[in-house]
Amino acid sequence: MSEAQLVLEGSSGSWRLAGADEGVLDLPNAYLGYLQDRNYSPRTIRTYGYGLLAFGRWLERTGVRLEEVTTDTVLAFLSSCRHERVTGRPSPNVLDMQGNQVDRLAATSINLRLAAVSGMFEYRSMRSPEAPNPIPKGKPSAWFAPGERSGLLAHTKRRPAPRSRLRLRTARRLPRALTRAEVAALLGSLRCRRDLAMAGLMLYCGLRSCDVLALDIVDVDIGARWLLVHGKGGKDRRVPFDIDLASVLSQYLLTERGESVSPALFLVAKGPTRGQRLSPAGLRTIFRYHRGIAGVGAGAPHALRHTFGTALAEAGVQPGRHAGPTRTRPRRHHHPLHPPGPDPREGSIRCRSYPSTRHQPLNRAPSPRRRCWPPTTPTKA
Hints:
Elements: E1 7-11, E2 14-18, H1 26-37, H2 42-62, H3 71-83, H4 107-127, E3 137-140, E4 162-164, H5 180-189, H6 193-204, H7 209-213, E5 220-221, E6 226-230, E7 236-240, H8 243-256, H9 280-294, H10 301-314, E8 350-351, E9 372-373
Antiparallel strand pairs: 1-2, 3-4, 5-6, 6-7, 8-9
């Protein structure tokens, strides 16, 4: 059997490796089934499946059986991933701004492979405690949730979990936020209300692209201007949105969406899949086309979310991972393109928890304004 015969197959949200002899893939497929039984996301299972696929193909090239894997074998796989070339990338003499070769796998991609391999052998150790685990263990994790070291949650403090040494160090860089001119150019290139609404949800509400595509019609309350967002990990949250965004959503539903049996909010407008839920590949195609027209090379869908989070951080707001203004604590939330300066009235006035773009279309850069509660009145001298 050649390594090209080993493939990853998906069906109805489940993934399995195929193409090898009988019994060779029992452990990887059992581990993928175990992840599905634990209610892991199908995308997470697919990512782990591709990591196991790369490991299985490497074992075929080296002639090592899965039962013969040792720590040295896993370290050799790590070294092979470091030197693996990605097809379709430029030649090795092309470097990025950090001096790294662009034809190699990123450290995060290698860590995903290693996490899949580590999880598979931990699953084998759970089923057969006598089977040796070739994954080297590192220092225990010292991370604690807020309140676990002391206070009301001190009695629930968890034991530090051992971390694997099979991991590459990754750089922690700040996200690339778009400038006002880039945002105005990108939004100005969008013509249909569907694309404007999707961009507005990511830019003004901080939604991920997968959050936008997962929205159904019943999740949008245009009258009250609230969204029910089904986020990653099965976590739901409510997010407010501005009156201008509500107007764009209303126009899209009345004039562009049309009738469909699909409950999805955003549908494919033309082609053989017309009337079906817009896919992630379709969303990327839309933004790839429009950022080429606008001349904004960094105008990817997730860059709009980074712009939202960066503007909130500059304004002094600290929502959890800039997921959106969904906290119950009174926090000041300002327009993502116009963070305010220091306010001497801070502490006595609480601004509304959504950015204001009233009386301004989405394809324009809005002017700075704040809507505070309670209303402030000028004091007499």
